[in-house]
Specification:
Radius of gyration: 22 Å
Number of domains: 2
Oligomer: single chain
Order of helices and strands: HHEEHHEEEEHEHEHHEHH
Number of strands: 9
Helix content: 25-40%
Strand content: 15-25%
Distance between the termini: 62 Å
Largest sheet: 7 strands, mixed
Number of helices: 10
Shape: globular
CATH architecture of the largest domain: 2-Layer Sandwich
CATH class of the largest domain: Alpha Beta
CATH topology of the largest domain: Nucleotidyltransferase, domain 5
Strand order of the largest sheet: 3-9-6-5-4-7-8
Length: 304
């Protein structure tokens, strides 16, 4: 049996060069992980390392056990600029479409239609209703604050009868003092009837500090049940067209993708804040309608 001579490095470097026309087929995730595979990874303590071809946001990826084994990227940075420069990737995005490009080159697949929440269930609005009865600020806070930790998310929801409206969203990575200031600023800007904060160690610390130093009284909420079950409880409301999302804002597409990808997406902080708000509003609507509140004015708050 003859010995096969390997390709020299200078020729290997041209494999997959999109600028040359044809390219070898390469495997990529085209759909969300199968539940069995996802569960197996969790049981074995594995973690997914997902590095998109184009960084959707500033990020740090832990690539090894050492303290310095972190790969940093800025939003918009290309992973392999010599092989797949930005203009080539943008051409591929146009050819494939945004969803297919996100699956192949962003490793962020969403099944056709969505997972728990389906794309065609979502309802949108461009202007806030004038007869909002109740305003709720819902906060899902990261358990730790590091470059690779989860995000902290604040959302503003309004209610009209059985219908809920996502009016605003902030998503940040901040240390506790800055996060406290953001919650205070958000509350002052929107003046919600209630501010909900998930009952975590960081949440309790911030709520206690806010209550000690101000007149505000955020409400700690202890989640009941598993994350997936909490969103599934509100799937009928989405399907019935009772959940509406403002779509003319920069946060909209990121929120939509996370909602449709859940529970197999890379993040779930926006989903958790949504489940928390909808659970509160559902319980409130069962007790009767509140005072009508009109002329909601959109205000600018810190977002990063």
């Amino acid at each position: 049996m003859g010995h096969q001579v390997p390709e020299p490095p200078e020729r290997q470097a041209h494999w997959g060069d999109r600028r040359g026309g044809a390219a070898p087929s390469r495997g990529r995730s085209r759909r969300s992980p199968h539940p069995r595979g996802h569960g197996m990874m969790r049981r074995r303590g594995w973690a997914m390392l997902v590095i998109p071809a184009i960084a959707p946001e500033d990020a740090a990826y832990r690539i090894g056990p050492g303290e310095d084994d972190v790969h940093h990227r800025r939003a918009g940075e290309v992973l392999l600029p010599d092989r797949e420069p930005l203009e080539v990737l943008e051409r591929l995005r146009a050819d494939l479409g945004s969803s297919n490009f996100a699956a192949q080159y962003g490793q962020d697949p969403i099944p056709p239609g969505g997972n728990i929440i389906h794309d065609d269930w979502l309802r949108y609005f461009n202007e806030e209703p004038s007869d909002l009865e109740h305003l709720v600020a819902s906060w899902d806070l990261a358990s730790t604050v590091t470059e690779t930790s989860s995000w902290s998310v604040g959302q503003l929801w309004g209610a009209v009868g059985m219908h809920a409206y996502l009016l605003d969203l902030v998503r940040v990575r901040l240390e506790a003092p800055e996060l406290r200031r953001l919650i205070l600023q958000y509350t002052k800007a929107w003046d919600p009837h209630v501010t909900l904060v998930e009952d975590t160690e960081l949440g309790r610390t911030l709520v206690q500090e806010i209550q000690r130093t101000t007149d505000l009284r955020p409400r700690l909420i202890r989640p009941r049940g598993e994350k997936t079950a909490r969103l599934e409880a509100h799937a009928p409301a989405f399907e019935a067209g009772r959940v509406h999302v403002a779509r003319n804002f920069e946060w909209f597409e990121g929120y939509r993708r996370e909602l449709l990808a859940f529970p197999y997406g890379a993040h779930d902080d926006q989903v958790d804040a949504t489940s928390q708000a909808l659970n509160y509003l559902t319980q409130r609507s069962a007790r009767g309608r509140g005072t009508v509140r009109r002329n909601i004015t959109r205000r600018e708050v810190m977002r990063d």
